[in-house]
Amino acid sequence: MKKQKHTEEAPEIKQEIVDNETTNNQEQEITTENTDVAAQQIEELTQKCADLNDKNLRLMAEFDNYRKRTLKERMDLIKTAGESLLSNMLPLVDDFERGLKAMETSEDVVAVKEGVDLIYNKFIAFLMQNGVKAIPDINELFDTDLHEAITTIPAPAEDLKGKIVDCVSKGYTLNDKVIRFSKVVVGE
């Protein structure tokens, strides 16, 4: 009987072995297909990575060139920014030279004084055209944003307390920005 059982079981085992082989073959085919798909995806991603890396390098190079160009333009602008201002001051220098020459030979002090006053007024007008204005000082309220107190003295009158009594050095603003504070004496 034992032989008979062995032969009866054999077809089932054979079928199972065939099924396992078929399953293994299908799994190998699926694994091969998955490997091919994965390799293709890896290749595509590698290409995209290389493209992005190239774009990034180009962008960095463009930005570096832009930065260098703007830095050079800024340096050129700084070098030549004062050129027009200084060239507009040259007529004032000419006036001063003529005034100094006139002082050597002139004995009329009043005429020399008038000439110096004209040059001074021309210079103040030039400064105003370029945005420079004098800060008001005498009899004004003391303001730490505009004035620098050198000293304080007793106020000569009651209404001058906290106000500027004397100005030692005028202050100036350039387009409403203080470029030099007024040095003043304040009444207490």
Give, in spatial order, the strands making up the sheet with the most strands.
1-4-5
Quote the distance from N terminus to C terminus: 134 Å
Radius of gyration: 47 Å
Number of strands: 6
Mean pLDDT: 85
Structural class: alpha+beta
* The first-level CATH class name of the domain at 131-188: Mainly Beta
Helix count, DSSP H or I runs of 4 or more residues: 2
* Poorly predicted ranges: none
Describe it.
By secondary structure, this protein is α+β, with helices and mostly antiparallel strands. It has helices at 2-105, 109-129, and strands at 132-134, 147-153, 164-169, 172-174, 177-180, 182-187. Strands 1-4-5 form a three-stranded antiparallel beta sheet. The protein has a three-stranded mixed beta sheet with strand order 2-6-3, with no helix packed on it. Helix 1 (2-105) packs antiparallel against helix 2. The model has no long low-confidence stretch (mean pLDDT 85).
Fold topology:
Layout: H1 2-105, H2 109-129, E1 132-134, E2 147-153, E3 164-169, E4 172-174, E5 177-180, E6 182-187
Parallel strand pairs: 2-6
Antiparallel strand pairs: 1-4, 3-6, 4-5
Helix pairs in contact: 1-2
Please give a handful of descriptors for the protein shown:
188 residues; alpha+beta; Nucleotide Exchange Factor Grpe, Chain A, domain 2; 3-stranded antiparallel β-sheet; 3-stranded mixed β-sheet; 2 helices; 66% helix; 15% strand
Concise overview:
The protein is an alpha+beta fold and 188 residues long. Helices cover 66% and strands 15% of the residues.
